[in-house]
Amino acid sequence: MKVNGAMKQNRRRFLKVAGTTTAALALGGLPFAARAASAATEKLKIGVVGSGRIGGTLGGVWVKAGHEVMFSSRNIVHDKALAAKLGPNARAGTPREAAAFGEVLLIAVPYRALPEVGKDLGNLIKGKVVIDPNNPIPSRDGEIATWAREKGAGLASTELLPGARIVRAFNAIGYARMGAAHEQQGERMGMPIASDDAKAVAVASRLIREIGYEPVLIGGLAMGKYLMPGTPLAGERTPEQIRKIAATLK
Ligand SMILES: NC(=O)c1ccc[n+]([C@@H]2O[C@H](COP(=O)([O-])OP(=O)(O)OC[C@H]3O[C@@H](n4cnc5c(N)ncnc54)[C@H](OP(=O)(O)O)[C@@H]3O)[C@@H](O)[C@H]2O)c1
């Protein structure tokens, strides 16, 4: 009974968000979102926290697309070398500097690091769009991953990164493949995403297209639990295939 009530509430909330996305973009009601979605040539400032395989790869493609990207981790030497290799649109800083720099953030760390990252960044992430590719893997991340899987990865990330406008994306395709997708010709594969926030969806959608995928919103953050390796949505699929599978998960 309680679960059914919560599910109905989540669905109502998602439908409201999905409706808001379209309406707000049409009416210009969300200036930043509308700007990010429509002015495809306007460059963004992106803060990357965790500049490993995912952060380094996706951030590198965004640098090539002309955005300004600050890379960060606990290893500034690595991040400076990465930025130097990528050219003048790339720079390196601490995670707090990257969070302050970015109007949109990609936080890409092992899931077990999220509690520490959330505490370290504190108010700097409040109200910011945060792209969440992070997967709770019990064998790698320990107890926190078991907790996050029970709660659902999207809702767990929200709790660990309070105040951020979270959108789950880039969760279940290998980093090397995602790094090459923008160079491929032909039909684009889909990128399933989940969020409760219209602005996060709009900003992430643009950045996903630049990586080489067509974003497919499958629902609110409660659906984020399906955006992980080992679920029916994992791997590369066409947007239509993603929509069909997602419909069976609701
Ligand atoms: N690899 C993939 O193909 C793939 C695909 C989809 C999703 N994912 C998910 O994406 C996330 C990142 O994966 P990855 O493969 O990119 O991992 P990775 O290569 O190990 O990179 C992790 C990055 O996070 C940094 N980091 C770790 N703890 C940190 C902390 N407390 N504060 C700041 N930075 C910290 C690491 O640098 P330092 O340790 O030097 O700080 C490193 O730069 C994971 O949750 C993973 O499940 C990965």
Structure description:
- Helix content is 50%, strand content 15%.
- The chain has helices at 2-27, 31-38, 53-64, 76-86, 95-101, 114-121, 138-141, 143-151, 153-160, 175-180, 198-211, 239-249; strands at 45-49, 68-72, 90-93, 104-107, 129-132, 165-168, 190-195, 214-219.
- An eight-stranded mixed sheet has the order 3-2-1-4-5-6-7-8, with helices on both faces.
- The radius of gyration is 17 Å and the shape is globular.
- The model is unreliable at 1-38 (pLDDT under 50).
- NADP nicotinamide-adenine-dinucleotide phosphate is lined by residues 49-55, 73-75, 95, 108-111, 113, 116-117, 133-135, 170-171, 174-175.
**Major sheet characteristics:** 8 strands, mixed
How many individual domains?
Answer: 1
By CATH's scheme, which homologous superfamily applies?
NAD(P)-binding Rossmann-like Domain
Bound molecules: NADP nicotinamide-adenine-dinucleotide phosphate
Structural class: alpha/beta
The number of distinct β-strands equals 8
Strand percentage: 15-25%
Radius of gyration: 17 Å
Say what the CATH topology is.
Rossmann fold
**Segments where pLDDT lies below 50 for 5+ residues?**
1-38
